[in-house]
Design brief:
1 helix, lipopolysaccharide transport protein A fold, about 220 residues, mainly beta, ten-stranded antiparallel β-sheet
Length: about 220
């Protein structure tokens, strides 16, 4: 009887511990997924897991997607993928950790280290995280820490017709954040809350008996 009670108690403890362990986020779990690739032509070594893909290249692993004209990639020992991509432009997309949101990159060239989860974008680069974005000729992004760095580097080629030159500048925009402390001014629907009803003025006091001025009373 005691053994059954101990086993039952241990099972409850294990269930409680399992409930506290957070599930792996989509981006961290990408390396557990297979690597898919397609292109017009390709030279892939099945033994070394290294390949070169040319023409309309699409490389995916879980939530990670890279589109480019050319990609040189490899499968790392931890099953993550590392790649160098060239295009006009290349696009990079992957889900952020613990958030139902993606970060996206656009550039002429990209270097991605899947083991470190570190992305570098070169030449006319754009990094977008949700509604926030930054533009420069060099941007790096660490998906583990969500820290980015941008450097103003000169353009490597003249701007095309109708294309504004970027130059050695860094440009970006942060959207306004929602402030939960504004509830004292506006309601949940953005409308000012109704004013509290004014209390009724107190009724005049009525004496229990009027004071008589007639004699004898």
């Amino acid at each position: 009887m005691m053994d059954r009670f101990l086993r039952f108690t241990l099972a409850l403890v294990l269930v409680a511990v399992a409930a506290r362990v957070p599930s792996a986020s989509a981006e961290q779990a990408d390396r557990e997924k297979p690597i898919h690739y397609q292109a017009d032509t390709g030279d892939v070594n099945v033994q070394t897991k290294v390949g070169t893909l040319l023409g309309n290249v699409i490389l995916t692993q879980g939530t990670l997607t890279i589109r480019a004209d050319k990609i040189v990639f490899r499968q790392n020992a931890d099953n993550s993928v590392s790649a160098t991509a060239w295009g006009n432009p290349i696009t990079f997309r992957e889900k952020r950790d613990q958030v139902d949101e993606y970060y996206e990159g656009v550039a002429q060239r990209a270097e991605y280290d899947g083991q470190k989860r570190f992305l570098e974008l070169f030449d006319r680069a754009l990094l977008r995280k949700g509604a926030d974005e930054i533009r420069s000729n060099y941007i790096s992004y660490n998906a583990e820490t969500e820290f980015f760095k941008a450097e103003g580097r000169p353009d490597t080629r003249p701007a095309a017709a109708g294309e504004p030159p970027l130059g050695a500048r860094v440009r970006g925009v942060f959207q306004p954040q929602k402030d939960a402390n504004k509830d004292d001014k506006t309601g949940k629907n953005g409308k000012a809350p109704a004013a509290p009803p004014k209390p009724n003025p107190p009724a005049p006091l009525k004496p229990e008996g009027a004071l008589s001025t007639e004699p004898g009373k």
